[in-house]
């Protein structure tokens, strides 16, 4: 599934619902779908709030089901990028210290997903790849 939507805060909910609907074919349990929706929410919010800041743009999202019920989710923006990805992934780090941000987005993503990769280039954008295997209701 591939989606492209305007980087507006109301579309974060749309992204969560779209992922949830697409992954329903794997029959995930409630905890799995909740974790994935939370990680997607954080990645999309980062793209909207930090990637584009006060400018407009689009967020691209791709969701695939790989072999072995493995879920692959790529969220991409063409915004300002991240200067230091390693630092940005530290708990409590925020690129917007003047705003009310907790700096836990990447921490939440890594907590709920098995694999998180962040590729970013200043002034060109950021790509976040999230991966996790679905055990599902019938495979617990």
Polypeptide structure, described:
The protein has a 5-stranded antiparallel sheet with strand order 1-2-3-5-4, covered by helices on one side. Helix 1 runs antiparallel to helix 2 (30-51). The longest helix is centred in the N-terminal third of the chain and has 22 residues, at 30-51. The chain starts with a strand and ends in a 7-residue tail after the last strand. It is an alpha+beta fold and 140 residues long. The protein is built from 4 helices and 5 strands. The mean pLDDT is 91. It has a single domain (2-139), classed as Heat Shock Protein 90 (2-Layer Sandwich). Helix content is 34%, strand content 27%. A hairpin with a 3-residue loop joins strand 2 and strand 3 (70-77). The protein is globular, with a radius of gyration of 15 Å.
- CATH topology heading: Heat Shock Protein 90
Mean pLDDT: 91
| Oligomeric composition of the shown chains | single chain
What is the CATH homology-level superfamily?
A: Histidine kinase-like ATPase, C-terminal domain
Number of domains: 1
Distance between the termini: 26 Å
Counted by DSSP, the helix tally is: 4
Q: Which strands sit side by side, in order, in the main sheet? A: 1-2-3-5-4
Number of strands: 5
Name the beta content range.
25-35%
Shape by Cα distribution? globular
Alpha-carbon Rg, integer: 15 Å
Which sequence of SSEs, written as H and E, runs from N to C? EHHEEHHEE
Contiguous low-pLDDT stretches (5 residues minimum) are none
Instruction: Kindly name the structural category.
Output: alpha+beta
- What CATH architecture do you see? 2-Layer Sandwich
Specify the CATH class: Alpha Beta
Tell me the major beta sheet.
5 strands, antiparallel
């Amino acid at each position: 599934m591939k989606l492209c939507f305007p980087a507006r805060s109301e579309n974060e909910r749309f992204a969560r619902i779209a992922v949830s609907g697409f992954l329903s074919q794997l029959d995930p349990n409630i905890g799995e779908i909740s974790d994935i929706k939370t990680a997607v929410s954080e990645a999309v919010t980062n793209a909207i709030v930090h990637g584009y800041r006060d400018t407009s743009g689009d967020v691209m999202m791709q969701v695939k089901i790989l072999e072995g019920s493995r879920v692959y989710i790529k969220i991409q923006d063409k915004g300002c990028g991240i200067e230091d990805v390693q630092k940005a992934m530290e708990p409590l780090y925020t690129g917007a210290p003047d705003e009310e941000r907790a700096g836990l987005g990447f921490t939440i993503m890594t907590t709920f997903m098995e694999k998180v990769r962040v590729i970013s280039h200043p002034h060109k954008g950021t790509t976040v790849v999230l991966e996790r295997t679905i055990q599902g209701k019938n495979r617990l």
